[in-house]
Design goal:
Layout: H1 4-16, E1 21-25, H2 30-42, E2 47-51, H3 57-67, E3 72-76, H4 81-90, E4 95-96, H5 102-109, E5 115-116, E6 118-119, H6 122-130, E7 135-138, H7 146-154, E8 161-164, H8 173-177, E9 185-187, H9 193-198, H10 201-212
Parallel strand pairs: 1-2, 1-9, 2-3, 4-5, 6-7, 7-8
Helix pairs in contact: 2-3, 2-10
Length: 217
């Protein structure tokens, strides 16, 4: 019988394994959420991280959950218990944090949705492992050692797997995806600011389709 934390890892794996890239989305207008999500899903990227960096974020999560059945929408930039409660109520299926505090870990233990905590160092990783976590966001990836750090983690922390995010683009993503301890990669290059501003959903769908093929490149 699986332990609660083993089930937690399984739930995270089931979500993140759906696509090689998780679009990291900063949505300023709720009305953009559904057409954006539909474009990304159509392009082969069904796992979406809506960051809590804008006032529209909670409404965007709710709209995507209700109107885009093919999407697995989660929340990013979850910093505390209040954030976690709000995104759970909005219908997010997972939460991602850029780092992790003891208070956030405690809140996650009572949450119905799984948390992917952020780590940047071996000590932060060890703390998460002590609490039973085995899946992490590696952030900010490029400025925290990138591929070299993830390769170094693989030796002493063979049970840990990651979603590296931060400074990764289409050119860098394939090398990350080739690592055995990387499940998926987070990035925002497939959602250019000018395309978002003009509502150019067909361009975003095209970029998403190119991103979805990166694991095989």
């Amino acid at each position: 019988m699986s332990t609660p934390m083993e089930l937690h890892s399984q739930r995270i794996d089931q979500v993140l394994a759906r696509a090689p890239i998780v679009p990291v989305l900063s949505i300023n207008r709720v009305e953009d959420a559904v057409p954006l999500a539909r474009a990304l899903v159509a392009g082969g990227l069904p796992v979406l991280e809506v960051t809590l960096r804008t006032e529209a974020a909670i409404g965007a999560i709710r709209a995507i959950r209700e109107e885009v059945p093919g999407a697995s929408v989660g929340a990013g930039t979850v910093l505390n218990a209040r954030h976690l409660s709000a995104v759970e109520a909005a219908g997010a299926t997972f939460a991602i944090s850029p780092g992790a505090t003891d208070a956030l870990y405690a809140a996650a233990s009572d949450s119905r949705i799984p948390l992917l905590p952020g780590i940047a160092t071996a000590s932060e990783l060890m703390h998460g492992l002590e609490l039973g976590y085995e899946r992490f966001k590696f952030f900010p990836a490029e400025s925290s050692g990138g591929i070299a750090s993830l390769k170094s983690f693989a030796g002493p922390f063979a049970q840990a797997k990651f979603c590296p995010t931060g400074g990764i683009d289409a050119a860098k993503a394939p090398a990350y995806l080739a690592l055995p301890n990387v499940i998926t990669v987070g990035g925002s290059w497939m959602v250019p600011a000018d395309a978002m501003a003009s509502g150019d959903w067909s361009r975003i769908e095209k970029l998403a389709r190119e991103a979805s093929a990166l694991r095989n490149s």
